[in-house]
Amino acid sequence: MIPTPRTYFKRPKEEQQSTQTQNKTRNTNVCSFCDKMIKGNVKIHLSEPVMTCHPDCLKCGVCAKALGDLLTVIFLHDQVVHCGGCFAKTLRT
């Protein structure tokens, strides 16, 4: 099974019931989360895991804090993206 952005970046529980499937193409103009076209030059592209998204679509998988401004430190823990605060809580438990 090839890892996808959705397996790395889990959505908050209220969004996990989405019936959307990830776009299987690697078109860098399609958001890996919402599957909508990314218009203009403002987009986030990560090489590991491979994903491209709108800045508004990149959120903490625990608390849903917006991370698209790239001013908040981002961690990947147990295949879930965490903001700094949620990652620190994970380490304390």
Automatic annotation (TrEMBL):
Segments for region (Disordered): 1-23
Underlying gene: LOC115018730
Sequence ranges assigned to domain LIM zinc-binding in this UniProt record: 29-93
Name of this protein: Zinc finger protein 185-like
Keyword Cell division: no
Record's keyword terms, sorted: LIM domain, Metal-binding, Zinc
Keyword set includes Transmembrane helix: no
Single GO MF annotation: metal ion binding
Record organism: Cottoperca gobio (Frogmouth)
